[in-house]
Write a structure and sequence with these properties.
With about 500 residues, the chain is of the alpha+beta class. Among the domains are: about 90 residues, Trypsin-like serine proteases (Thrombin, subunit H, Beta Barrel); about 100 residues, Pdz3 Domain, CATH 2.30.42; about 100 residues, Pdz3 Domain. About 25% of the residues lie in helices and about 30% in strands. It contains 13 helices and 28 strands. Strands 22, 23, 24, 25, 26, 27 and 28 form a seven-stranded antiparallel sheet that branches. It has a six-stranded antiparallel beta barrel with strand order 1-2-3-6-5-4. A six-stranded antiparallel barrel has the order 8-9-10-13-12-11. A hairpin with a 2-residue loop joins strand 19 and strand 20.
């Protein structure tokens, strides 16, 4: 305290002898230093002491069949009484004795978890921690070991819920927090069981939000630089209030150890999944019945949208919820259930989190206008079980390629188109329901190739208008140029797959 007062007195005397600009700069420095000090926690001792009992270690054992050892070749046919006869006989007998069945081999794994309901003995962890386990045990903070049973698991979000009997054991519950309040730069604490060492506390900040690491269809990870290693999986990420804002799930590590890039599933996703697993033993996700793609700036320009946003519908499942409500390929979903859709990947998460059977208002952009469609959601799991989401068949082997007829060259787009014939359908495995104009050649250095178009693709529509002839293609492109569009929007089919592709037009 004395040192602090002395420093302030010195600063006050010094400021009276400095120019105004220098005084302002010095004050700014002290203010920034004050803010930096306030943003840094003095310590995590009290928080760690309170939170450690809420975190558990998860130990699993799985039985896997032992690998079959390679059989030896037949014993050599040696002359009776040969000095090698007894040697080979002894060797083969010993090898056969070692081949006796030893039973299944037990494989153990370690992870982390945290208590969400002390009274009911409910614990949350990662699905990959307990997947295929024959035996699950939970080790508490006081080193007591309890048998656990699986309540339910979800592979899509990598979440699982366990249950332990709480007789004679007093568990301590965590509290859920709002993961949306965990901003980039916010302090967080991770507690878990790295490398089987037991309760370990690490601290860091939120490094990034909304990370997509291709782990599943609902990726929305929180990235942190808090040290997370193998064994931390399933452990909680806490904010400075001691609330769970994420579940530590994955790391980026070329070496296998922590390099300061860890990923946690946000609590706002985990809570909904956990509630369903506890209630039903499985998930019941909403289902819209559409295939979507990102709206790029080129696509937005070709549709006359201005800003690129929303989710572009490339196809609609027949008799699905969206089809019954009137959603069409080419619609851009701008809002779902009163929540704006800025990026395509937001829509699957919002739909999945919505109650099955609920009527949700969906705002779509269609041919320059917006329209609101009420859609009654189906159930994703039911659709998956019925096979309507996996009806694509592998393409048959291509027959010999016929001599291509002379086509219409679109040099500014880098492709050539020809009429779609029965021979063309057979050659490229094109669905009978798909109509349009066939791409017979693509310039490897042209705009079409840059967007992934290839020989055998079918142009079904341009700027949301069907095309049936090569003349239709020329006419649609001419209209786009006349309207001042910088891109032209192709609706392209490849076997059973449909998608929109925006290709830039050459400037005049």
């Amino acid at each position: 305290m004395i040192q602090a007062l002395t420093t302030r007195a010195f600063a006050a005397r010094a400021f009276t002898r400095l120019p105004a600009v220098a005084v302002a700069a010095a004050l700014g420095f002290f203010m920034q230093a004050s803010v930096a000090h306030a943003a840094t926690p003095d310590g995590f001792e009290d928080l760690a002491e309170a939170l450690l009992p809420t975190v558990v270690n998860v130990s699993t054992t799985a039985k896997v069949p032992q690998a079959q050892k390679q059989e030896l070749p037949p014993m050599p046919d040696l002359p009776p009484g040969s000095p090698f006869e007894q040697f080979f006989k002894d060797f083969y007998d010993q090898y056969k004795n070692n081949q006796q069945p030893q039973g299944d081999e037990k494989v153990s794994a370690l992870g982390s978890g945290f208590v969400i309901d002390a009274e009911k003995g409910l614990i949350v962890t990662n699905n990959h921690v307990i997947k295929d386990a024959d035996e699950i045990k939970v080790i508490l903070h006081n080193d007591e070991t309890l048998d656990a049973t699986l309540v339910g698991a979800d592979e899509k979000t990598d979440i699982a819920v366990l249950k332990v009997k709480t007789e004679g054991e007093k568990l301590v519950s965590t509290k859920w927090g709002d993961s949306d309040t965990a901003k980039v730069g916010s302090w967080v604490i991770a507690i878990g069981n790295p490398f089987g060492l037991g309760g370990t506390v690490t601290a860091g900040i939120v490094s990034a939000r909304q990370r997509d690491i291709n782990a599943g269809p609902y990726d929305d990870f929180i990235q942190t630089d808090a040290s997370i290693n193998r064994g931390n999986s399933g452990g909680p990420m806490f904010n400075m209030k001691g609330e769970v804002v994420g579940i530590n799930t994955a790391i980026f590590s070329p070496s296998g150890g922590s390099v300061g890039i860890g990923f946690a599933v946000p609590s706002n996703i985990v809570k909904g999944v956990v509630d369903q697993l506890v209630k039903y033993g499985k998930t019941k996700r909403g289902w819209l019945g559409v295939r979507i793609q990102e709206v790029t700036p080129e696509i937005a320009d070709s549709l006359g949208m201005g800003k690129a946003r929303g989710a572009l519908v490339s196809s609609v499942t027949p008799d699905g919820p969206a089809a019954k409500a009137g959603v069409q390929p080419g619609d851009v979903i701008l809002s779902f259930n009163a929540r704006d859709i800025e990026h395509m990947r937001e829509l699957p998460r919002q739909v999945a989190e919505t109650e099955v059977g609920k009527s949700a208002p969906v705002i779509v952009f269609r041919k320059g206008k917006t329209e609101t469609l009420p859609i009654v959601l189906g159930q994703l799991e039911t659709a998956e079980a019925s096979g309507v989401l996996g009806d694509e068949k592998p393409a048959a082997e291509k027959p010999a390629k016929p001599e291509a007829p002379k086509g219409t060259e679109l040099s500014d787009l880098g492709l050539t188109v020809v009429p779609l014939t029965d021979k063309g359908r057979e050659t490229y495995g094109i669905d009978k329901k798909l109509n349009g104009v066939l791409i017979s050649k693509v310039d490897a250095d042209g705009p079409a190739a840059d967007k992934g178009l290839a020989e055998g693709d079918v142009i079904a529509a341009i700027d949301q208008q069907d095309v049936a002839t090569t003349q239709d293609v020329l006419s649609r492109i001419a209209s786009a140029k006349k309207a001042g569009h910088t891109s032209v929007l192709f609706f392209v089919g490849r076997k059973q797959d449909l998608r929109f592709v925006a290709i830039k037009l050459k400037a005049k």
